[in-house]
Amino acid sequence: MSATRRASRRSAAAASSEKTAEKTSASAAGSIDSVMQETRWIKPEKDGPKHGSIPTAAKLKSMRSKALKNPEAFWEERASELEWFSPWTKVLDWKYPRAKWFTGGKLNVAHNCIDRHLTTWRRNKAAIVWEGEPGDVRTLTYQQLHREVCRCANGLKKLGVKRGDVVAIYMGMIPEAAIAMLACARIGATHNVVFGGFSADALRERIIDSNAVCVITQDAAWRRGSHVMLKEAVDAAVKGLKHVANVLVVRRVGVDITMKKGRDHWWDETLDGMNDSCAAAKLPAEHPLFILYTSGSTGKPKGILHTTGGYLTQATYTSNIVFDLQEDDLYFCTADVGWITGHSYIVYGPLSNGASIFMYEGAPNHPGPDRFWSMIARHRISIFYTAPTAIRAFMKWGDQHPAGHDLSSLRILGTVGEPINPEAWMWYYKHIGGERCPIVDTWWQTETGSIMISPVPNVTPMKPGTATTPLPGIDADVVRRDGTRCKADEGGYLVVKHPWPSMLRNVFGDFQRYKKTYWSEYPPAGDRPAYYFTGDGARRDADGYIWIMGRVDDVVNVSGHRLGTAEIESALVSHARVAEAAVVARPDEIKGNALVAYVTLRGASAKMSGRALEKLAAELRAHVAAEIGHIAKPDDIRFSEALPKTRSGKIMRRLLRELAAGGSISGDTSTLEDFSVLESLREDED
Length: 686
Ligand code: WT7
Fold this sequence. Notes:
Helix 7 (200-210) packs across helix 8 and helix 13 packs across helix 15. The chain is globular. Among the domains are: 109-124 and 133-281, Rossmann fold (3-Layer(aba) Sandwich), CATH 3.40.50.980; 550-685, GMP Synthetase, Chain A, domain 3 (2-Layer Sandwich). The strands form eight sheets. An eight-stranded mixed beta sheet has the order 12-11-8-6-7-14-15-23, sandwiched between helices. Strands 5-4-17-16-18-19-20 form a seven-stranded mixed beta sheet, with helices on both faces. Mean pLDDT is 91; it is low at 1-27. By secondary structure, the chain is an alpha/beta fold. The structure holds 5'-O-[(S)-butoxy(hydroxy)phosphoryl]adenosine. The site of 5'-O-[(S)-butoxy(hydroxy)phosphoryl]adenosine has 23 residues, from helix 11, strand 20, strand 24, strand 25 and strand 27.
């Protein structure tokens, strides 16, 4: 292989390394300071591989400008790449802030992801290549996937699940998770996948809020050699809930669990003897496909609602253009199906394109830190999509792990979830991609449903640390508080100026919250249409590249997962000893951010000290894990007699953030109610 020769040629030619740091200043119109400047360019090779629907930079440019001029015509073309049972009569019906796409059209997501490939040679192509954590491997062709999905769909029907019902899915990364999602889509049930790392309480809250009638789970999941007891958590979560009539349980690990008669059913027994075919329901384009809960800045998680036609149109288009999917690719996205990435870029987008997806059950460092590299080498995986937090962990585990495996099958790398620091980008490029694979840094959100900002591989010149420019069809921009456009390099707010097909349609059961969170920062004003508010701060550089600066609300990004600080605070306050809590983030080398909780105690507990406090801190961390899940556990708990507040009683999180980061307090403290609080918090730091 000429990989190393090519690599050195390219790094000499393209990866010139020059970095400067400068500060852009804030303006009265409400912009944000930006301090990062990265000027390295990594340009695609002139003779680099080119395929897919966007072969050249010129074509990309013309697509983009055509789409900006007439977005509806652009999206209509994308939608016609799917199979519809009946055509739409209207592309976009937009009545601020309510969007409907492809109204009048009828289709089925499972039909598009499976059935339409069965009439081609892809019938016998691998849809899913799966590796279990213990090392077992299963492959499902499109034909086999069709059979399993139909049997599951018929099983759900037998259990009384109907079109429009909500089905909660609480599983690990096994093929049955994808089968369950597709089976729901097939019969028009709306799925609500809850990440298997969430606690029973968090699951219960999501089951209640979505009014689920059925839960699909498994006995237990494999994780780092031990068992995650999923069915046990489901038992606790559904206790006393009358609306949950059935629980369907996949036998994965073989541990002992209790099965409640009449309510609980084994997957294999229920599906046994089910018919191999099940007609795909002809669903309106706006039929609810799924609800997925995500954190917000106030206490309760938001059920983000996605529908059928627009969602699949954009998930299909972006999977194709961002990953340049080819027939012989094996595509590996390391996300969990419990997150939006797992929905759009493990299941729906790639399968709709007829791609072969690789799915892995377990931990990235089991049995050793080279597990991913070993799988890439053994299965000849060609596209690899992961998160910056994982990349930073790989860096820490050491270069020898990827170096010990043949990674020459890789041709495209991707990242998502948080800004990737340029050092991690360069490491990924060099040690995983052998300096020959483009990296697609993809910006999007649970709410956007699909990728919005990303390079097109082998076409867009890259700069480490930026998702580059919006994809054709997406009108994203950086604006000031007053809605005017930021100048180059002036920090502001990332907004989307025109509705897009895979946008969220609602916060389940709470239209006011939907309107307030996303559409009230930039409501229609004169000739200006409403802008969708992403909650991210950003800067557009002189080349038009967008740099994400992080969240501007009380939401923190830990390991690529969004957590609402209010949710963690309310978990802490639900502990009998806690009077008040404020949770903020501090920078962390691996996780991006670590969580710091400032806690004041109630009554007599306030007098606790030494060992007793240490024990309480451990107890509080376990309490948050039980209430929400391990991902939300504060890294540090700092006890304090009081929290810094404004005169109107608002906790001054900005001060706590500065303290937590170990820095000094700068900026304005004139609204602080009691200066001595700050002094005592500072002393506690030492
Ligand atoms: C938030 C969305 C989209 C799937 C994973 C997270 C941050 C996401 C990037 C990126 C910089 C990013 C943003 C965004 N984010 N991708 N490539 N560069 N920041 O989904 O939990 O809905 O979080 O993640 O802050 O708003 P999510």
